[in-house]
Amino acid sequence: MHRQMSAPVASPPGGAGATREESPRPQPPPAPRNGTAPKQGALTIVRRSSSKSKPESSPPTDEQLDQLDLDTEHLPAVDTPDACDKAALRLRYLLRQINRGEIPVETLQKNIQYAAKVLEAVYIDETKVKQPLDQPRQPTTLQMRRLRTPCWASSVEKHEAKRLADEDDELSEVQPDAVPPEVREWLASTFTRQLATAKRKSDEKPKFRSVAHAIRAGIFVDRIYRRVTSTALMQFPQDVVRVLKTLDEWSFDVFALHDASAGYPVKYLGYELLNRYGMIHKFKVQPPTLENFLSRIEEGYCKFHNPYHNNLHAADVAQTVHYMLCQTGLMNWLSDLEIFATLVAAIVHDFEHTGTTNNFHVMSGSDTALLYNDRAVLENHHISAAFRLLKEEENNILLNLSRDEFREFRTLVIDMVLATDMSFHFQQLKNMRSLLTLAEPTVDKSKAVSLVLHCCDISHPAKRWDLHHRWTMSLLDEFFLQGDKERELGLPFSPLCDRNNTLVAESQIGFIDFIVEPSLGVCADMLECILGPLHSNTKNTTSTSQGAHGQDNPSAELTKLKIKKPWVTCLMDNKKIWKEQAAKDAEDRAKLEEEPNGAPPQPAAE
Is 353 a catalytic residue? Predict the structure, then answer.
């Protein structure tokens, strides 16, 4: 109706100007993709017990670290025995300097690159070791010296043979599901690409066990990278930090965020969401670039000074999409790229909105209507303007996407934003209802996230009354401004745009009954349908122990997933208030009609 008529979770550290550190994707109540989701940056290693003692190396002293020269020009070749010693010592030194804030970025990058090359060389060399076919492969003394023995621990040389014999027991098995996705992909891209030169058997797939010795050093390098990245992250004012603590609530107060952020809700909320879901780290988005992009998006929303379709509305829709992703478990059904596209689509879905409807553009023959041939005029402009902005280097948060990733991302964003055109509303709901009646419905991901974004776009009547009422008044202001323009141009009034003949309460009741409530109902049914299998898999896993004891529980398999629906109560409460207001308005109109020179009724202000 708005379009038709109007054209995760850690909180940042306290203190003013606190720097936002990268946080893991929020964990929703339903089942994660692979059973129990590991915490970001955590690594679970199952160690085998061993009765043999192992000597431990001592960390380098401060005196040794102070004497270190970080010049990379005279370092030993990466495939020499001394290389790993040098790399390990430098990583220790870098970590200390990062904590002190005394390390130039260029020096840091060069030394981390050197350490990564050393790890590659160690692994390649280890895979080339020839072992008898009937014996398990063991690392050589030289290789394990490179990996395990830093220069400050040379005093344990006499225990080397015994320690190497126990190395397999100590490393044991590293479970892939326990490794954070970013680290897993870093390892895969860094090490498994080298497997072709190792002449493995064609049917032997690389396993984490085979690179277990690199994981420990890999995690260390990854943590350094994270800490360096976090130093460049945008700073959040203390008031913004306080408001964002309620980000996971259905009726999030975006007006409070607007006040706390001094009028920049999109900048802070968009940054928080993309960081919280791990998009900044996953897709290598440079923090300054993201800040530039969000600032430009915010400017576009404020371009026409709209009472409703502005940066507040963009932030509100993005937060509501976050609720749907996180609190229903939808994020577990989507890939990282699909989540990235969904969040960006929510942020840009009304970019540079003119404050008038598509119908107004068509009837007035605007340049935008001519450009897009009277079809989805505003929605096409939102998409086109956003991607033009992304073509500018300083705003290109998609710079590190591959060609295929970019095409998928762009297609998803286009589909989602076009689906916010209210002229597609009833057909969209009809198609989804028909699909869900099938015995085994298969929901297309693009259609699913498109329906979610559309529902979030019109969700304010399903929020807490004080928020909903404020949104309604802002929307009516925008409608009436369009009506004033239509009067000036001699055009007929669009629905709800005549400020002298609009029934506010009745219009909102109709909007809730015929648009919002049915939309959220279909959306909930769709989410329960697509997330049901994930829920069932978890139920089956947790009940395996009962089945092993012969205690079958058929009812567990029949349990249908029910997501939380906080909007149901809000819709009922808001509709009740509007009905009371409608009755009062009717009485006031009746009294005015009885008076000889009664003035026309004005829209209710409460």
Answer: no
Cross-strand pairs, 45? 174
The answer to whether 53 and 69 have CB atoms below 8 angstroms apart is: no
**Are the C-beta atoms of 307 and 6 separated by less than 8 Å?**
no
Instruction: Specify whether the CB–CB gap between 398 and 295 falls below 8 A.
Output: no
List the structure tokens of 564.
């939380």
Instruction: Give 358-385 pLDDT, tens digit per residue.
Output: 999 999 999 999 999 999 999 999 999 9
pLDDT in tens, 477-497: 999 999 999 999 999 999 999
Contact between residue 49 and residue 28 where contact means Cβ atoms under 8 Å apart: no
**What φ, ψ does residue 536 adopt, rounded to 5°?**
-65, -40
Distance CA 548, CA 497 (A): 66
Nearest of 502, 338, 476 to residue 405 by alpha carbon: 338
User: Strand pairing partners for 574?
Assistant: none
Structure tokens at 532: 């049901």
Backbone angles phi, psi at 19, to 5 degrees: -85, 135
Compute the distance between CA of residue 129 and CA of residue 500 in angstroms, rounded to an integer: 86
For residues 445 and 504, give the distance between their C-alpha atoms in angstroms, rounded to a whole number. 37
Burial of 360 (0-12, 13-18, 19+ CB in 10 A): buried
Active-site position among 2, 213, 258, 309: 309
**CB hemisphere CA count around 135 (13 angstroms):** 7
Rounded to a whole number of angstroms, the CA Rg of the chain reads: 30
* Dihedral angle of Cα 24, 26, 28, 33, to the nearest 10 degrees: -40
- Cβ-contact 292, 271 below 8 angstroms: no
Distance CA 323, CA 306 (A): 25
